[in-house]
Amino acid sequence: MTYKKYIYLLIISMICIGHFSLSATDFTSSGNRKSRNSGAIQDTLSWSLSMVKKVLNGSGEWFITNPSFQKSVKGVVNYAENDPIDTVIVNMGQFLKSDSIPLIFNRKAENIPDKRVVPGYLFSEELDRLVESRRKSVTDSLRRSLIIVPESYLSEGLLKTPVIPDRNPMQMISDMEKTLPAGFNNKFNRGWAMVKLPDNATVGEIDTMKMKLFVSVRQFYNDSVLFSRRDSLIQSYRENVINQNAGDAASQRKGFLLDKNRGLLNAFNEAEVSKVNDSLRIALRFLTDRAAGDSSLVTITNLSGLQAKIWTANQPMNPIRFFLKNEQNDSVSVMLSSNGKRGIRMVIDDGVKFMRFTQSQKKEITFKTKKPDSKLQQVNLKQIDPLPWKLLGMGTVGFTQTSLSNWAKGGESSYSMLLIEKYIANYSKKKLKWESMAEFRLGIFKSQTRGLEKNDDKFEFQSRVGYEASKNWYYSGETNFRTQIAKGYKYPDKDNPISKFMAPGYLTTSLGMDYKPNKNFSLFLSPFTSKITFVNDTALINPTHYGLDPGKRRLWEPGAIVKLNWHHTIIEDVIYDTRAEIFNNYRFPFQKFNVDWEQTLVLQVTQRISTRINTQLVYDYNVKFPIKDANGVEVAQQAKWQFRELFTVGFNYKF
Hints:
flat, disordered N terminus, alpha+beta
């Protein structure tokens, strides 16, 4: 804190005290005065700030008669409370350049004042309408559908039905008016009234007829009550099921719409917050630059009392000439110019000659050296091992387009795309090495007549663990899995697929030795290899095309495998990769074997653009191709050499 702050605050404090006819006093909330203990005031700046702010921020008892003077008072208080303007400019400049704080101001999505500006936002009326529409739709659908009522529910409900018990009819007839329902009594009385008794009927015959009528009416009455109760239970169960399912559907719909509203609010709020912060950064940058361009007037006085005034600022200012003096009244002409707001550059004019130099004082200083203590122990530096993991990802997206219009030589417009993704995770520590790789490749081609077709499709995962046996040799175990993602067809036939995911799929497990003289070369020899071929969908894909018996989904083959991997940089930006694999089936030694040889040449044009040439030669004795006679009739099937070549120019990236 500079002395100027103290001076300004003392002047303002004295003006305030004099203006209000007050001595050195403290103000209480009621406006009363009390004596100030001079020994208690340790910090003049703190006291001055407290004094002025109590008057300015009071309850309105005191006021300043001149508004412009009030602005000056607040300005000097802000100057005393805050950092110097140069510090503020530096901090603000660093803050605006920093990427660690992307947002200066933020806002919660629920604090958006007018949600009508959010596109697609549903208010409560529309939300309730959609929820009720969902409830009604489910209710109508369930009312038209068959709802099965559990027998246990009906049985339990029917047990509670008030039926006429199966007891002695004559005893129940005697107490019928008091104990039995009115509906039953009415039916019985109407039935008895319709009975025609013989004139000579005895009392026993009359009682027998009454009992028969009672039993008949009781059976009819109980059946009608049970049927009515059953219908009521079924209707009640249906309504409960409909209401519960409709309520659940409405709740789910409401939850979905509320989540959608929150998503819309969050997306809209993020966009608005980003816009506001961009505008604030522009405004703050403008204000900071304006404050940085402020100037200060500096007065320079020489020994003769002559003065010169120069403006200093963080921008070019006009220079001035000034004469420096010494005790002998010698003069030296210098040019003074601004060197930023806090500096002055001083340059002596050309042609000045210094005629007198005298040595006024000389002092020699001798430094004594001291040898280190012989008892100090030597510190052994510990070597820091590098991280064992190496993770790498790379990809290429290549495009080819042909556009023809009224082309006399023929042809058609087309385009193709090739996507390659490869991920590597390697672990190496002491004698242990673990190398894993995953590769995904998909190529598509589209023309006007043939439509969309697939020309490349591969998904492969391989993991190999090795333990050093001797120099460059490792005991190794490997697992490899290969298949394709999308369906494959024998174009132009697009109705009958010949391959799909896991049809076929290959899983190979091997144990052997791995020869690695360097990181770019590997020769893997495995006499113990298990190869499994999968065709999971035998209804859609013919398993016999891949060496399986009809109806079988798996084929296991024991054998030996040899794998070669070589990565070589021919010249700068020209890279050659080759990968070869040979598998021999122990069941048919030197008769049935697989060959897969892939070569890739990459020419790096720029950091992001490359040209890639890829060839693949495959022979699989399990994959059969039809042999046709001169008339086009299939007469046999046999394995053939397969060849594929791709040339692409695309964008590549690594991470």
